[in-house]
């Protein structure tokens, strides 16, 4: 009897996994902490979330899947002072060899994303830009550091 319930549990778990887990990623760079990630679909990304997102085709990263932190959402103000980009309490220095993003309000449906490594290629730079919320694969949980 207990054995049958155990089988049912695993069947439900496997079905839940295919519906709610969209991707398992393995990080090879040092732009975020962690090496193995699981992305949960159907969660709207919020400021501070670690997300998996597909870069827009207009970006220098065309269609690549990235794992970054959401540092700014619609309505937040991006401030730029020479090579420093800030949004609220978040502040990051941009490398001088790339053009820095433009200052202004983040429009509806867009997000400002950043990695934790100073060399992370992310929304701080004009040729990467803001990410589309609709391109978010899911909110990520680190499985293995």
Describe the protein.
The chain is mainly beta and 145 residues long. It has one domain: Umud Fragment, subunit A (Ribbon). The chain has one helix and eleven strands; from the N terminus they run H-E-E-E-E-E-E-E-E-E-E-E. The strands form two sheets. Strands 1-2-11-3-4-9-10 form a seven-stranded antiparallel sheet. Strands 7-6-5-8 form a four-stranded antiparallel sheet, with no helix packed on it.
Topology as H/E string? HEEEEEEEEEEE
The stretches of 5 or more residues where confidence is low (pLDDT under 50) are 1-19
CATH homologous group name: Umud Fragment, subunit A
Structural class: mainly beta
As for the number of domains, it is 1
Determine the number of helices (DSSP H or I, runs of at least 4 residues).
Answer: 1
Biggest sheet overview: 7 strands, antiparallel
- CATH fold description: Umud Fragment, subunit A
Helix content: 10-25%
Mean pLDDT: 77
CATH C-level: Mainly Beta
Write down how many β-strands occur, each being a DSSP E stretch of 2 or more residues: 11
Question: What share of the residues does DSSP label as strand, in percent?
Answer: 35-45%
Mass-distribution shape: globular
C-alpha-based Rg, rounded: 18 Å
Strand order across the largest sheet: 1-2-11-3-4-9-10
The CATH architecture can be given as Ribbon
- Tell me the span between the first and last alpha carbons: 39 Å
Give a short overview.
The chain has 145 residues and is mainly β. Helix content is 13%, strand content 38%.
């Amino acid at each position: 009897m207990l054995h049958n319930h155990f089988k049912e549990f695993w069947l439900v778990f496997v079905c839940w996994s295919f519906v709610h887990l969209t991707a398992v990623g393995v990080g090879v760079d040092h732009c975020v902490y962690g090496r193995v990630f699981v992305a949960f679909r159907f969660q709207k990304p919020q400021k501070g979330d670690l997300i998996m997102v597909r870069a827009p085709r207009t970006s220098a990263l065309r269609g690549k899947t990235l794992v970054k932190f959401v540092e700014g959402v619609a309505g937040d103000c991006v401030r730029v002072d020479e090579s420093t980009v800030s949004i609220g309490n978040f502040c990051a220095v941009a490398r001088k060899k790339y053009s820095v993003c433009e200052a202004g309000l983040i429009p509806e449906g867009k997000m400002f994303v950043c990695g934790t490594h100073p060399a992370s290629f992310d929304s701080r730079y004009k040729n990467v830009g803001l990410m589309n919320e609709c391109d978010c694969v899911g909110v990520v949980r680190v499985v293995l550091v």
